From TrEMBL:
SUPFAM superfamilies: Ankyrin repeat (SSF48403). It holds the Pfam family Ank_2. This is Ankyrin repeat-containing domain protein. It comes from the Eukaryota. It comes from Dactylonectria macrodidyma. The keyword Repeat applies. PANTHER family: ANKYRIN REPEAT DOMAIN-CONTAINING PROTEIN 39-RELATED. Signal peptide: none annotated. Keywords: ANK repeat, Repeat. ANK repeats lie at residues 47-79, 78-110.
Length: 139
């Protein structure tokens, strides 16, 4: 795939770069190839949307693990953490993994929002499952 050395940091028609798209869709093998090809694990963070955020929001647990193992930052723009976005994803597996990595379940962003606030504003009734889960873990 990378033999022709395409510009891997160049935005697509959707203004996203390839690693963001691959992370969002859970295409873990492509994420690994892009990283091997020299793409930064935090590429796209300058747009306030690193690949890890896309993987978390998409509920792509295997991709999340790979990105974190490769050094993805767990703190995002506006003081949001990976736990904030995991709370909206509905993936307790991702949240458990992040908490085991030391993220604070009660971390606040610059507006004072916690992962619980994000869970309460999550789409598709995800909050019904995530709120009790967060409370059980100390939120």
């Amino acid at each position: 795939m990378l033999l022709s050395r395409p510009p891997l940091g160049y935005p697509t028609i959707y203004r996203l770069i390839p690693i963001q798209l691959a992370a969002a869709r859970g295409l873990t093998s492509i994420v690994k190839e892009l990283l091997l090809g020299g793409v930064s694990v935090n590429e796209g963070a300058r747009y306030d949307m690193p690949p890890l955020q896309f993987a978390i929001c998409g509920g792509r647990f295997e991709t999340v693990k790979v990105l974190i193992e490769k050094g993805a930052l767990l703190n995002f723009a506006n003081s949001n953490t990976a736990a904030h976005f995991a709370a909206t994803s509905g993936s307790t597996d991702i949240m458990d993994y992040l908490l085991k990595r030391g993220l604070d379940i009660n971390a606040t962003n610059i507006w004072g929002d916690t992962p619980m606030c994000f869970a309460l504003s999550s789409p598709f009734n995800i909050w019904k499952m995530m709120v009790p889960y967060l409370i059980q873990r100390g939120a």
